[in-house]
Specification:
This protein is an all-alpha fold. Helices cover 77% and strands 0% of the residues.
Length: 278
């Protein structure tokens, strides 16, 4: 019995170490590559940089206009997070607490949208819709489309909502509280961990979004986001000599994701612990 348990743990550790190796090695190679010269990257002769090129980060910041693109990415990401959490939390509250005609159809449609690729498949109709709304050359068109893809956050918040006792709603109703006031003053604060998890996933998705900002800002390059500017380093006119700058830019673009994870880490760990207990 102990031999079987030892074998099982050994296999589990081998699997976890292999998974960690596959996940971390590309990150390590990118970080080390950001400090190399382009010649070292092209030849691939050394694993560690011969001399650490810290100036790659300054050059990447200036050549890719990272300051402007970072502001644009922050506008898109933070606006998408705020809009997604607002829409998803209100929808989850109504679906969980109220009965209305078409409730099952609405939930089914939400689930259905999770299996529809919000990308190349629906890009043309999305663009045509934004043209009619005069938002096709604006970041607000991108933000609205990203907020509309909120189904996964809706179901996350719905699961958290089911953990909040309905007796709180009944007590608030007896005290004369309206539905909206109950939601804003009682339910929403208790939904904090779920909102933290939803914010983390939404921010990551919006920050890494590439196709929508690329299409909607073609006529206005000054509105491009960081992912689009980062790709310009690789595919620009002098792309052949800028691979090291692209890796430095990639490392810079990861930093906001790490900051968002630090702030939402507590909520994410609570959700993970809760799922393990369940």
């Amino acid at each position: 019995m102990r031999a079987r348990e030892l074998t099982g743990r050994t296999v589990l550790w081998i699997f976890l170490l292999a998974f960690a190796f596959i996940t971390l090695v590309p990150v390590v190679i990118t970080i080390l590559g950001s400090f190399k010269t382009n010649m070292e990257l092209t030849t691939g002769a050394t694993f560690l940089p011969g001399s650490w090129q810290f100036s790659n980060y300054a050059e990447a910041w200036q050549q890719a206009n990272f300051s402007t693109y970072t502001v644009n990415s922050l506008i898109v990401s933070l606006s998408t997070v705020a809009g997604t959490l607002l829409v998803s939390s209100m929808a989850a509250y109504v679906v969980d607490r109220m009965d209305f005609a078409g409730k099952k159809i609405y939930v089914s449609l939400q689930a259905f949208t999770m299996f529809v690729a919000v990308g190349a498949v629906v890009l043309r109709p999305q663009f045509d819709l934004m043209v009619k709304l005069h938002l096709h050359s604006s970041l607000w068109g991108v933000i609205l489309i990203l907020i509309s893809a909120h189904a996964s956050i809706f179901f996350i918040l719905l699961s958290f909502m089911k953990g909040i006792p309905r007796e709180l709603d009944e007590a608030a109703r007896i005290d004369g509280s309206s539905l909206s006031r109950t939601f804003w003053t009682i339910i929403l604060p208790l939904l904090g961990p779920g909102l933290g998890v939803g914010a983390l996933f939404t921010f990551r998705g919006a920050w890494n979004e590439y196709l929508l900002p690329l299409v909607f800002t073609m006529t206005k390059p000054e509105l491009q986001t960081l992912t689009v500017g980062l790709a310009n380093l690789k595919y620009g006119i002098s792309a052949a000599s800028q691979t090291h700058y692209m890796m430095a830019g990639a490392c810079l673009s990861i930093l906001p994701i790490l900051v968002a994870y630090v702030f939402a880490n507590k909520s994410f760990m609570q959700m993970t612990a809760g799922s393990l207990k369940g």
